[in-house]
Amino acid sequence: MTDNQHSKPTTGPTGEGENGNEEGVILAPWERAFDRLLTPFEEFIHRQTTGGMVLMGTTLLALLLANSALAPAYQHLIHLPASLQFGDWGLEKTLHHWVNDGLMALFFFVVGMELKREILVGELAQPRHAMLPIVAAAGGMLVPALIYTLLNGGTPEVRGWGIPMATDIAFSLGVVALLAGRVPRGLITFLVALAIVDDLGAVLVIALFYTEHIALDWLGWAAAVVGLLVVFNLAGIRRTMPYFLVAVVLWYLLLESGIHATLAGVIGAFTVPARPRYDPAAFSRRVRALMARFDRSYRPDASIMTNDELRTIAQALGNGALQVQAPLQRLEHLWSLPVAFLVVPVFALFNAGIPLQGSDWNALLRDPVALGVGLGLVIGKLIGITAAVWLALRLGIGELPKGTRFRQIPGVALLAGIGFTMSIFIAELAFRADPETLILAKTGVLFGSLIAGVGGFLWLRLTAEPTPERVPDASAQGPTGH
After folding, report:
1. Are residues 201 and 309 in the same domain?
2. Residue 372 dihedral angles phi and psi, to the nearest 5°
3. DSSP state at residue 97
4. Burial tier of 207 (Cβ tally within 10 Å: 0-12, 13-18, 19+)
5. Please, what sign has the CA dihedral across residues 391, 396, 398, 401?
6. pLDDT score recorded for residue 441
7. Whole domain around residue 433: which residue ranges?
8. Does residue 83 form part of some domain?
9. pLDDT digits (tens, 9 = 90+) for 87-126
């Protein structure tokens, strides 16, 4: 009865309803009150800085849990076994492994879609604009890896050379957002492109260097499934569910093959179509034709539930609105928020809990693993990116973004040293069998990322000039949030 009582809008003399509603808008009894609460909350959620805040909060929570009386319960939760069982088939892992091997596949799925979009239509689509962030990312990966290797060469711990190579997009953009009035948009675009190329490098490093064994039979089946995804793309299948279901199968096959299963996310993302069914002109013609039919079918004071033709036309309009968007675009928009506000924070909660109580800080600061990771993220990124950009400009390779000065590049280089999510992920792969070294590596990631973030903020704060090209928020140009 309640729905029927509010199914017809009441229009006042000003074209608004008696309660101030927009004409023709039907509101539920409590809808206006809930809108007042939800609208500011939705705006808050969509801010890039919010993802960084949530990630920082869960990181602090993990550190608190690991260094309090709740530490035993926290460790018990992380290592709690959980299994999937279908008849005789079963897959059992700890919650920690489900998060790192399973949930993080969604993170890599978004990373893959960002990579594909940037390559097709973004900053990396134009060679002249793409060269500088590509060269900068290469320098920002090679020098940190070299610093770590110099400090750990000849030891088993040298396996962690990939840890300081990574950049956390969400954290770095969150810091940039605090400097909105002083940072030109071109500099933010440069940082995003650099971080995305960095992510691609990290994905390749994981695939090539952090695979312990390869089961060729499982890998062969995985290749066949990738072929099926490519067939879907070439055949014009634009519904996203087939890609998702086959990507889940690919995840399992890669898991059994020995290659890290999260790479199924990147591979699956690259097969999602980037071509919509309608171009804008065709969509416009279709909408006008449907709206003409809609207006002819409209009956005043009649509910749409009693007008089948009106309902059919409305459904066709909805389908058309979906088909004018590329599936890649729709999926990236759909998954960006869940990854930023669920996947990455859960990963931080399960991986950032480093026991710091009773640590010998003098020994820790001298430890080659922690020192190699920390110096790699701070000094390595600073030298690698700045030197690579300087050399590229001297050689005429690429150009600085509009409104950007070279003196701002070291600040961006420091922000790229916020490794966090991807660095911790690689540390887990490198030292999964060595918990003590893993803690040292994670400690280096945390402190290195903290120093790099503060250093980058201060550098840009001191060197950047106020610009009329305001950046009110470092828009959703990346996961992740990642």
Report:
1. no
2. -65, -40
3. H
4. middle
5. positive
6. 93
7. 49-210+335-463
8. yes
9. 778 788 889 889 988 888 898 898 888 888 888 887 778 8
